[in-house]
Amino acid sequence: MWGELVSDVARETIGDDERAALADLAFSLGAKYENRAFGDIDAGRQHWREVCEAGLPAISLPATYGGAGEMADLLLVAERLAAGGYPAGKLTISTAIGGAVILRHGTERQKKEWLPAIGDGSLRFCFALTEPGAGSNAAKMSTKATRTANGWRIDGQKTYISAVDDSDVMLVVARDAESGGFSILTLPLPCDQLQMQQVGVMVGVPEKQWTVYFDGVEVPEDALIGQPGQGGRALFDGLNPERLIVAAQAVGIGRWCLAKATEYARQRVVFDVPIGEHQAVQHPLAEALIELEAAWALIERGAAVYESGGSAGLACNMAKVKACDAGLKAADAALQTFGGSGFTDETLMYDRFGYLRLLKSTPVSRELALNHIAVSGLDLPRSY
To answer: How far apart are CA 292 and CA 254, in angstroms?
Structure first.
């Protein structure tokens, strides 16, 4: 089975046999929904329930909080779900971002209260970072958190926030009004003080997108994760896993596209021979396979650096850029193999292509990731 490349990090925690069983389970759950469009909200929710019933969101959490593995195991699950045909988007926000931020920077009370609930799926997180006037430039963030007698007041606006209507807690990144640094706060949902407006998107995604408005939204003192104005490290401890899990999903979806295309190329007969005999069909698919395998190696490297506690930004950004390029290349080659039928709702190939194209731009645009790679990997001067 493609992609079951076992890292040393994972071997220390979950044995090879357990890892193979985990991969098979995740693949089967993805395959169960491979004929559903990514924009099918009901399918996405039902799929997530089954993922939770299987215990998969807990896989990267420590045993103390109901988990069983490492980041590498979560990435394997994400890739296999997607390779089966249907990724689990909430693994990105709830597990990769929420779980990582709370595990590394939360109080012991926050860890005990939230991590097991993230692991069993009973607590769903969304993540509010992007702002209309700032985009990828977090330095321009204007949403503020101001200390009050009873806690914190949040004022500002966020946009393209996934699944606000289908989450229990929002992680809000805001500027500390006193120091100007980043603070991360938790906001229980639904919240009567929070104003919401749905954002229409043309790409099929399994969660609704929202613009949210904070106008004096009050949260208690213990809503803060970490120290006020010192949430920069916590933020990137969430963003780096996000980039890895998005990369894993991109590789998985690319593999699904590639598997469907090669099956079609073997069966589709034109001019008396299967089209898969022609090098014009073979070579783009072969090149896509090479790119996907190279991307998976970078993902495993990123997971190892992240688990070691080192500075993981460079490795995670490289994995994200390579994986999203590779997944999109595989989907494009698959579309060309299918010809006109690739654009029908029967194959769903264009549905997957559109989603992979979205991942190239968000979260974190390809250009901003390359900027970081140039500075961190090549010691070039900052351009941002």
So the answer is: 7
Look up residue 156 and give its two tokens. Answer: 């500002």
Longest dimension (CA), the chain: 79
If asked whether residues 150 and 130 sit together in one domain, one would say yes
* 202 located within any domain: yes
Residue 254 tokens read as 């690319």
| Per-residue pLDDT tens digits for 112-122 | 999 999 999 99
Q: Is residue 1 part of a domain?
A: no
From CA 334, how far away is CA 330, in angstroms rounded? 6
Give dist(CA 1, CA 79) in Å, integer. Answer: 12
Q: How many angstroms separate the CA atoms of 39 and 19, rounded?
A: 30
Cα–Cα dist 141/344, whole Å:
41
Q: Is the dihedral of CA 368, 322, 260, 21 positive or negative?
A: negative
Question: What pLDDT digit, counting tens, does each position of 353-377 carry?
Answer: 999 999 999 999 999 999 999 999 9
Do 62 and 103 meet the contact criterion of CB atoms below 8 Å apart?
yes
Supply angle C-alpha 213, 217, 223, rounded to 5. 120
Between CA 145 and CA 174 the distance in angstroms is 6
Residue 200's CB is within 10 A of a number of other CB atoms, namely 6
Please give the average per-residue pLDDT across 157-165, as a whole number: 96
- DSSP category for residue 382: P
